[in-house]
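Run Sodium-independent anion transporter through structure prediction, thanks.
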Amino acid sequence: MSRPDLTRSRPHWLSFRVLRTEALAGLVVALALIPEAISFSIIAGVDPRVGLFASFVMAVTISVAGGRRAMISGATGAIALVLAPVAHEYGTDYLIATVLLGGVVQALLALLGIARLMRFLPRSVMVGFVNALAILIFLAQLPYLTGVPWSVYALVAAGLVIMVGLPRLTTAVPAPLVAIVTLTAVTVMAGITVPTVGDQGELPHTLPVLGLPSVPLTFETLRVIAPYAVGMALVGLMESLMTAKLVDDITDEHSNKTRESWGQGLANIVTGLFGGMGGCAMIGQTMINVKSSGARTRLSTFLAGVFLLVLVLALGPVVAIIPMAALVGVMIMVSVGTFDWHSIQPRTLRRMPKSETAVMLVTVGVTVATHNLAIGVVVGVVMAIVMFAQRVAHLVTVDSVLDPDGTTKIYRVTGQLFFASSNDLVFQFDYAGDPGTVVIDLSGAHIWDASTVAALDAIETKYRQRGTTVTINGMNEPSKRRHQALAGQLGGGH
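Sure, done. The structure for Sodium-independent anion transporter is below.
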């Protein structure tokens, strides 16, 4: 009997090389998660343990339930900003109740197909999102570089040298991990006094406990938390889906955005049940995982959460002595690697339509000014829609020809007819000078909305008032159905 080929049946992620890559990536991400989770807890006005538990539970849950492999989710600044007013005014229990409701809202939005809206995201907005994110990641490091000993700058510079130089020699071990270990060893052995992870807040000593928040189950509680829960759900989904799309581009893989939306909702529900502050996809840690460390499977996300818990519980004293300078250097490298430098090259700017460059710059400007990615993206999308509508509106043409016998005039309309282009349509006809019969040929046009039907009604009314007979023909089937359903019913032309 021949022996079964175990290597052929073994999953790809169980190979030693993949396991090593995923485990080391998870360790680096876990180290980077600790100070950010603590910082975001401070922003939200809650105990640092609330943010650390959120990052642990989010990472573990999304590694199973999410639709984008190797993407990291945890406590984020955007969610902290949304939830901060609840924590400050009503306390931690109300914040956790808001997280639970926000997770339910995200799951419902996933079932309603909100992920499909990502197809309407213009590339210029996506580039602006990425560039703004890189800038925000860099700006978030500045507080750790202000009013600190000169040795901090030396350590950051040394870390950057390691992370730039080591990959040219070997990629067996992630350069960020080498930089963190090396700089920690140097500061301890040399007795250098610099800010450390332990200075950011107290690390937890116990496991998170399953439970429900102590809030009254009343309509008044719902009235308080519902607006913040909806805001959290929308901001979290927007950041997560855009981060997933960015990782898709980096890895040349397609992810299930609907599953990711549902997974984010489930992760927030589980996080709330364990007393966490909720969260969403983390672009900085995801870039460390995917770009800097080369992770590609769910294992790295799962291990990031597990390592985070192990580090803060079992190795808390060791983690506490890691210099913040090491983690700042890692995040600076992430910001540099995240920024789309090609988008601001003079050659690219010369070739790119000015409207798309403007959309990208506005997205960046609004996001950086508000420190809110959701606001920046919404403003960018609205601006892109307006500029697109203006461009398409100018592509509508109206040509006319008079029959040889002079009794009929034919107007041929070409282009996409919608509110922006059809508003001027009514002024393209010579009502007083036309003969008794007018034909409007729409075979080269498409009717998209009620504004166009109202404009055609107005044209017919103006001709009818002068005793002119108007015939509209050549409409394609969708245009014909829309025109038949709305003509004469809008009140604008009669």
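The chain has two domains: 14-343, 397-486.
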